[in-house]
Amino acid sequence: MSRLYKTEGVVLRHSYMGEADALVTLCTPDRGKLRAVARGVRRPKSRLAGHMEPLTYCTMMLAEGRTIDIVSGCEARDSFQGMKSDLWLLSCGLYAADLTDRLSAEGAENRPLFRLLLDALHSLSGGIDPALVLRYFEFHSLACCGYLPELWECPVCHRKLEATTNYFSPAAAGLLCPDCRGKEGLDRPASVDVVKVLRFFARNECSALAKLKLKPRLAREIEDLMQGYVTYVLDREVASAKWLRELRADEQTTKVPVNLVGGQLPVGTGPD
Ligand SMILES: [Zn+2]
């Protein structure tokens, strides 16, 4: 008889298997990234239906399988409906899930990353500027996986950084002083204001983002810097980041009201 265990998790994605089953990828605090099969989840009368949609925080019972574990019970604890009722916020949530999927390892406990993902989804549901939430999420999800950038001392000469334009180096995982900036072309100028925002991220909880308001140009500089770092660490761009940029360009011309509550999320999800 297979061993049963209980865990909590956030559904990152699911893809269909056959007519009724789904392969579900979860972010859990104690088991890191976890893949499991949800049998019969697509049947209308399934007790799992509605509890295992992407971006749902749930408590699950699972049975250990020989090759993959099987979800035997699941109860949704938060569906983040405030986020899912808005296409842009939902897309931001899916990007956070995608990044979590790429950064986390199966079977490796990562409680800070799980907590960060929950905080980000609550913040997206709670009206905090979604662009700020994503930059904060990028910063801290990288930090949770061993890529915390150095923001106070140049990693090459170890001098304290001055209040001037410094240079963010993905390879050095931090801010280089003007004397040590590299020559490989990946270093990116980081203005005094950019550095202040990054330090704010480093020192504060996600909820503190409510106090922050950035001018569009500064927001774009931080987006370019953080996404450059994400791409460097993963050795590729996260596909949903490109998808988000395209959606933003579309939304600037037309605002599409979409109500996805209770409906099928546009992901099997998310671009791959
Ligand atoms: Zn230096």
General description of the model:
The chain is an alpha+beta fold and 272 residues long. The chain has two domains: 4-78, Beta Barrel (OB fold (Dihydrolipoamide Acetyltransferase, E2P)); 86-251, Up-down Bundle (de novo design (two linked rop proteins)), CATH 1.20.1440.120. Helix content is 35%, strand content 21%. It has seven helices and eight strands. The strands form two sheets. Strands 1-2-3-5-4 form a five-stranded mixed β-barrel. Strands 7-6-8 form a three-stranded antiparallel β-sheet. α2 runs parallel beside α4 (130-144), α2 (87-103) packs antiparallel against α7 (239-251) and α4 runs parallel beside α6. The protein is elongated. The chain starts with a strand and ends in a 21-residue tail after the last helix. The relative contact order is 0.13. Bound molecules: zinc ion. Zinc ion binds next to loops.
Q: What secondary-structure arrangement, pairings included, does this model have?
A:
Blueprint: E1 4-17, E2 21-28, E3 32-38, E4 57-63, E5 69-78, H1 81-84, H2 87-103, H3 111-125, H4 130-144, E6 166-169, E7 174-176, E8 188-190, H5 192-203, H6 216-234, H7 239-251
Parallel strand pairs: 3-5
Antiparallel strand pairs: 1-2, 1-4, 2-3, 4-5, 6-7, 6-8
The structure holds zinc ion.
Residues 154, 156-157, 159, 176-177, 179-180 line the site of zinc ion (ZN).
Summarize this entry quickly.
With 272 residues, the chain is α+β, with helices and mostly antiparallel strands. It has two domains: 4-78, OB fold (Dihydrolipoamide Acetyltransferase, E2P) (Beta Barrel); 86-251, Recombination protein O, C-terminal domain (de novo design (two linked rop proteins)), CATH 1.20.1440.120. It has seven helices and eight strands, in the order E-E-E-E-E-H-H-H-H-E-E-E-H-H-H.
